[in-house]
UniProtKB/TrEMBL annotation:
Alphabetized HAMAP family for the sequence: Tyr_tRNA_synth_type1
Organism field: Novosphingobium bradum
RNA-binding found in the keyword field: yes
Entry-linked NCBIfam families: tyrS
Chief site of localization: cytoplasm
Stated family: Belongs to the class-I aminoacyl-tRNA synthetase family. TyrS type 1 subfamily.
Alphabetized UniProt keyword annotations: Aminoacyl-tRNA synthetase, ATP-binding, Cytoplasm, Ligase, Nucleotide-binding, Protein biosynthesis, RNA-binding
Protein name according to UniProt: Tyrosine--tRNA ligase
Gene designation per UniProt: tyrS
Sites where the protein binds L-tyrosine: 39, 176, 180
Motif ('HIGH' region): 44-53
PROSITE patterns per the UniProt record, alphabetical: S4
Length: 410
């Protein structure tokens, strides 16, 4: 591992955040001598980010922990365009009201993980619509356009991926990289920003911003990317069979969020503890070294720590208590998902879909046929079974060993 002078790069390197750096020596020297304002951008395509964005949020947390200034850039402007990076198709268009509502919802997670304020290292949140919406098209073409060549833009992975697959890439999306580069320049002018961080798929966009600002303003900026984050089995971080693992409480109950981390692959425990918790590295090394069934204790530590950061200490304690009651005691934990069953009953497959265990009744039927469904820990083999419950009566519905919910009579 490279030896860095600055606390910032040492911290990022030790915990596994660094994939690429534009000028390691220059950034290291700068971080060792002054406060660096650094930013990451997040588009507001939904009311919540999912755990695939959590490594980026934690990078801003590390930036602040090392004595520097995080700038959270919400893409109120770029959300209207759409980033083609890592996408197979165009995103749906949102109106201004929907974008602003999403930003307000997303902010709640950042407020848990960062300290906002007016101090030199306090985080700030800005919306790039503030400057992008003021751009005149002809002015943009004249001032920014000459610094980009179509030849080079066609070489970026985000563009090549779509073209190679012969999937449409709209002119609107093709402009995204220009707008992101313009963001970096604008943040340098408005907030003294010197560093942009992001996932490895953002490397080309970050380089664009550095070069544009150097050519237009003569300022030296820096870029840093994280490794592509996948689970040990190769799956994309933040995706499960049941859907995205959302960071906001109203998008995913705390118990399901906690369970996601409790059920990670054994091989991912140490890496995730470094990336997603504040536990000391020596304690992480101890937990990572646990063998056999003892690794489950490390997973509980991981689940508690991440849930406490993103949802609060109370949510973490409640989720662990629910898991203990459900798995160890065989009872019904208070934090399990609940589905109200109408007085005239509900078919089993509809209950599985209604509680969120399956995406469709067809999938529910397959799970029943596979023997994966249980009611009060007894196998349920008839997909057409009608569940009739008295008012207030509760029964436990389980899919596999790890998904449990409560059916309650209405």
């Amino acid at each position: 591992m490279t030896e860095y002078k600055s606390a910032l790069l040492r911290l990022l390197a030790e915990r596994g955040y660094i994939h690429q750096l534009t000028d390691p020596t220059g950034l290291d020297e700068l971080a060792a001598t002054q406060v660096i304002p650094g930013y990451i951008g997040f588009d507001a395509t939904a009311p919540s980010l999912h755990v695939g964005s959590l490594v980026q949020i934690m990078m801003l947390r590390r930036l602040q922990q090392a004595g520097h200034k995080p700038i959270v850039v919400m893409g109120g402007g770029t959300t209207k365009v759409g980033d083609p990076s890592g996408k197979d198709e165009s995103r749906r268009m949102l109106d201004q009201q929907g974008i602003q509502a999403n930003i307000a919802s997303i902010r709640t997670v950042f407020e848990r993980l960062l300290t906002f304020g007016d101090g030199p290292t306090d985080a700030v949140m800005v919306d790039n619509d503030e400057w992008l919406s003021q751009l005149g098209y002809i002015d943009l073409l004249r001032t920014v356009g000459p610094h980009f060549t179509i030849n080079r833009m066609l070489t970026f992975d985000s563009v090549k991926l779509r073209l190679d697959r012969e999937q449409p890439l709209t002119f609107l999306e093709f402009n995204y990289m220009i707008l992101q580069a313009y963001d970096f320049r604008e943040l340098a002018l408005r907030h003294g920003c010197r560093l942009q961080m992001g996932g490895s798929d953002q490397w080309g966009n970050i380089i664009n911003g550095i070069e544009l600002t150097r050519r237009m303003e003569g300022r030296e900026l820096f870029g840093l990317t994280t490794p592509l984050l996948t689970t040990a089995d190769g799956a994309k971080m933040g995706k499960t069979a049941a859907g995205a693992v959302w960071l906001n409480e109203d998008a995913l109950p705390a118990y399901d969020f906690w369970q996601y981390w409790r059920n990670v692959d054994d091989r991912d425990v140490g890496r995730f503890l470094k990336l997603f918790t504040d536990l000391p590295l020596d304690e992480i090394a101890r937990l990572e070294a646990l063998q056999g069934s003892e690794i489950n204790a490390a997973k509980v530590v991981l689940a508690n720590a991440v849930t406490a950061l993103c949802r609060g200490e109370d949510a973490a304690r409640a989720a662990e208590a629910t898991a203990t009651a459900t798995f160890a005691g065989g009872g019904l934990g208070e934090d399990l998902p609940v589905l109200e069953v109408p007085a005239d009953g509900m078919v089993l497959v509809a209950a599985l879909t209604g509680i969120g265990f399956t995406a469709s009744n067809g999938e529910a039927k397959r799970k029943v046929a596979e023997g994966a469904v249980r009611i009060d820990d007894a196998p349920a083999t008839d997909p057409a079974l009608v569940l009739a419950l008295a008012p207030g009566e509760e029964r436990k519905l389980s899919l596999g060993k790890k998904r449990h919910g409560i059916l309650r009579g209405a």
